[in-house]
């Protein structure tokens, strides 16, 4: 990790947006600066995700870091969507706790993935219908409550009944407390943090 | 010494950092009571008779050392005009947040608990449990921390934004929530509750860094707990507390919930003689444990943290999930009875 990355990470976890932007601005005069800024933000968020997983920073810090990076990415490269980005959807099922979903959205958007946000509190049937209508290829489901996590099994069943081929990636507290739960509900993968979710998506894209 | 203790004596002894006859067991049954009675969860909580019957049955069945009057967290949100979503087989969850804009906080008033049916039902439950328990079992009641209630009042993301960016609105919200929490906690004590579980997941190190906790959640806890007229346990609903554990004794809490993600032995070393611990069985994994796994998990906690008292065995979230098979609960209870007898000499 170089000095600039370290400064950015410290600024993000301290919720110092001004300092974070100062670090980003140091890249503005370099050739191909958009790509460099994107890489800087992506690597900082990856490190922050790992720090969270190790218990060294708190959920609020990863959330605020994601928000700052999302704003900076929009300001310095408003259209950074990857040309090869698959159609990705995200939702929180039967639950109004949307913090996890918002963190994932910020971080995925910063790293160039475009997402369709199906909101929170959505039912299994409604979600499946909308996802099929939008021809989504990868669906991310964020959960906080155990019953919401378990209801992913119904989503998987509904897609199967409709012969709709989709990859489902899950995450959130119940899955972090039971490393076997994602398999039990029939998901294709589980991300312990947003960076891991990005790695899994990239892996799926390579193998498709 | 192995004299005969009832549950209340057992719990009070361990809380005074002495060894009773055996390690107390708190299986915290809330919506699980509906499964026991074979009725829907919303119906179950609508009548105090249901909760009393289920509590007595479950306590007897599993040799439980407490009666738990808690229904569901969003009962308190209902007092502020919120709604609750009742899943078929899970913990009731809060509906759409009631605070949508800054003026909603500016105009927020402390609600009257006696005008909220879900809360008066809990008070009736406590009174009936008090008559049944006849001071042999502690009645544990719950009050959401004023600092954690806003997760439901505003939504988790909006509340984190408020904590970081809106100090004036934050203080206004805390003033209302603190008055509500103190009134609600003391009403439960007056109805017969033995102790209050101050449910404060937002203060955990999983959610906030320590510096922010010291500025925000800590002073709220210190003030609120000082006004509650009974012993207070602080529970973080599976959240880690490694970053703040040494600050917690100053809040006047006497018992703290430990996450299954943390080593209960290490936690005990840090606050030995100052705070007792409750935990830290993994409530999610518990849904699929074999008998052997259940036994191993309970034995591990006893081995790490039972010596010298100051320990209550429980799940780490403060609620047994609907999906946990009775077989697992019987095994947990049996293991506590077998391996939790003081003096503990089996290892």
Largest interface: A-B, 32 and 37 residues
Q: Which overall shape of chain A is indicated by the principal axes computed on the Cα atoms?
A: globular
Number of helices of chain B: 15
Helix content of chain B: 40-55%
* Distance between the ends of chain B: 19 Å
| Top CATH class of chain B | Alpha Beta
List the helices and strands and how they pair.
The complex is a heterodimer of chains A (about 210) and B (about 350).
Chain A: H1 3-13, H2 17-25, H3 33-53, H4 59-76, E1 88-93, H5 99-110, E2 115-122, H6 124-133, E3 138-143, H7 146-150, H8 152-161, E4 167-172, H9 173-177, H10 181-184, E5 189-190, H11 194-207
Parallel strand pairs in A: 1-2, 1-3, 3-4, 4-5
Helix pairs in contact in A: 1-2, 1-3, 3-4, 4-5, 5-11, 6-8
Chain B: H1 7-15, E1 25-26, H2 32-37, H3 41-46, H4 48-61, E2 67-68, H5 74-79, E3 84-85, E4 93-94, H6 102-106, H7 117-133, E5 139-144, H8 150-154, H9 156-165, H10 167-191, E6 195-199, H11 210-215, H12 217-226, E7 232-235, E8 255-257, H13 264-271, E9 276-281, H14 291-305, E10 311-315, H15 326-339
Parallel strand pairs in B: 1-10, 2-5, 5-6, 6-7, 7-8, 8-9, 9-10
Antiparallel strand pairs in B: 3-4
Helix pairs in contact in B: 4-7, 10-12, 13-14, 14-15
């Amino acid at each position: 990790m170089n000095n600039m990355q370290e400064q950015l990470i410290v600024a993000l976890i301290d919720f110092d947006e001004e300092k974070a932007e100062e670090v980003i601005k140091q890249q503005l005069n370099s050739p191909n600066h958009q790509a460099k800024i994107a890489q800087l933000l992506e690597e900082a968020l990856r490190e922050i995700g790992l720090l969270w997983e190790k218990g060294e920073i708190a959920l609020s810090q990863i959330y605020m870091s994601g928000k700052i990076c999302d704003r900076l990415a929009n300001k310095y490269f408003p259209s950074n969507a990857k040309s090869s980005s698959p159609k990705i959807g995200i939702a929180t099922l039967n639950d109004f706790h949307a913090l996890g979903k918002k963190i994932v959205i910020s971080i995925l958007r910063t790293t160039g993935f475009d997402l369709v946000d199906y909101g929170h509190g959505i039912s299994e049937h409604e979600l499946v219908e909308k996802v099929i209508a939008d021809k989504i290829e990868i669906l991310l489901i964020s959960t906080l409550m155990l019953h919401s996590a378990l209801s992913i099994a119904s989503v998987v069943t509904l897609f199967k009944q409709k012969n709709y081929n989709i990859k489902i990636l899950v995450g959130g507290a119940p899955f972090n407390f039971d490393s076997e739960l994602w398999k039990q509900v029939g998901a294709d993968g589980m991300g312990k943090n947003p960076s891991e979710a990005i790695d899994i998506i990239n892996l799926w894209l390579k193998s498709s | 010494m192995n004299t005969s203790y009832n549950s209340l004596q057992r719990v009070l002894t361990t809380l005074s950092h002495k060894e009773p006859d055996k390690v107390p067991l708190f299986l915290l049954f809330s919506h699980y009571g509906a499964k026991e009675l074979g009725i829907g969860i919303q119906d179950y909580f609508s009548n105090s008779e249901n909760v009393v019957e289920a509590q007595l049955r479950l306590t007897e069945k599993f040799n439980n050392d407490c009666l738990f009057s808690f229904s569901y967290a969003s009962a308190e949100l209902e007092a502020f005009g919120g709604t609750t979503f009742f899943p078929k087989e899970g913990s009731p969850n809060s509906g759409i947040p009631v605070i949508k804009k800054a003026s909603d906080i500016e105009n927020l008033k402390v609600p009257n608990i006696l005008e909220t049916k879900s809360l008066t039902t809990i008070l009736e439950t406590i009174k009936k449990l008090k008559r049944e328990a006849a001071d042999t079992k502690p009645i544990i009641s719950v009050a959401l921390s004023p600092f954690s209630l806003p997760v439901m009042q505003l939504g988790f993301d909006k509340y984190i934004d408020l904590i970081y960016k809106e100090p004036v609105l934050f203080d206004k919200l805390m003033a209302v929530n603190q008055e509500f929490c103190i009134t609600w906690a003391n009403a439960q004590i007056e109805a017969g509750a033995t102790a209050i579980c101050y449910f404060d997941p937002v203060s955990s190190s999983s959610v906030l860094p320590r510096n922010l906790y010291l500025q925000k959640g800590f002073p709220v806890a210190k003030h609120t707990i000082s006004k509650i007229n009974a012993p207070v346990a602080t529970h973080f609903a599976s959240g880690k507390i490694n970053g703040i554990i040494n600050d917690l004794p100053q809040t006047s809490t006497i018992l703290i919930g430990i996450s299954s993600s943390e080593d209960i032995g290490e936690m005990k070393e840090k606050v030995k003689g100052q705070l007792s611990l409750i935990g830290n069985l993994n409530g999610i994994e518990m849904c699929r444990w074999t008998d052997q796994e259940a036994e191993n998990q309970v034995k591990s906690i006893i081995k790490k943290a039972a010596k010298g008292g100051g320990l209550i065995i429980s799940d780490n979230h403060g609620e047994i999930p609907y999906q946990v098979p009775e077989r697992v609960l019987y095994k947990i209870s049996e293991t506590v009875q077998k391996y939790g007898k003081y003096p503990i000499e089996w290892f």
